[in-house]
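ok trying again, last paste got cut off:
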Amino acid sequence: MVVAGSKQLGALLEGTVSEIQPSVENEAGGFSAGVRIDEWYSDHDANSLRQGERHVLRDMMVELAGFAQSGVGSVFEELLDAMDDVVFFAKDIEGRYRMVNQTLVRRVGASSKEGLIGHRADEVFPAPFGDAFRAQDEHVLESGQSIRDRLELHFYSARATGWCRTFKIPWRSASSVVGLMGFSKDLQRPATDRAPAGVARAMSYLDQHPDQRLRVADLAAVAEMAPRSFERAIQDLFRASAGDLILQARIDRACRLLRGTDLPVAHIAQECGYAEHSSFSRQFRARVGLTPFGFRKIGVERR
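nice, full thing came through this time. structure:
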């Protein structure tokens, strides 16, 4: 099992990392240093855990302790904190944060990492977005299935928003899922003057015509490139597919119209290149985490 280490491991083990040794008391379900699962895991109602679950938690904690003591943990944390366009997190089986980087702390408006440890996504992010993130976590934890490279519109403190690519991977001990790790990386467009002329022309066309039902082949034609060559160029420049960029442009326009006008949602769907209101609502909810009506009600502000 691969684990992440950081200063938060100290909080994870209630300040006893330096005392814990890899030997364990199998029958008692505790560490040789005297730190018991019951004591450490009180917020998870450890007394109700089955013996097998106690041993899984015990093994996970021992491995975390060893990793933190190795000196790698602090270096790993420093690297994660240096990535200001990446949100990193590790969560336990209950979906509670056990490790975060500084980028997540800033974006949710928390005062410190310690203020996030032990809380779930719905306690950190504003409603109803936090509920959607928690539902994602529960899906990964219950099914053991990863979420990979999902394009999402994220919401942070002060109602700011930003497009990200999200990965969530189940964290296993033997055959059991004991938590998850993941990250969300900002999706940023390079300056169009740095892109090949044809690609820049296609991106400008997309920005000016989000109401059209554009396909990748249409943008490739504007770029005067073969579709496959255009797709490769887009992937190299944006680390995203051309289809994702079309979807992003449509949802961005929908957000602006929902926030800044009183147009009916069905009309906004047409303005954003959707022939059917139902299709628009499904894609909007899948990427934003709530319905167009819910988004309009909240009135978030685009950063």
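cool. Residues 1-54 have pLDDT under 50 and may be disordered. The CA atoms of residues 145 and 170 lie 7 Å apart.
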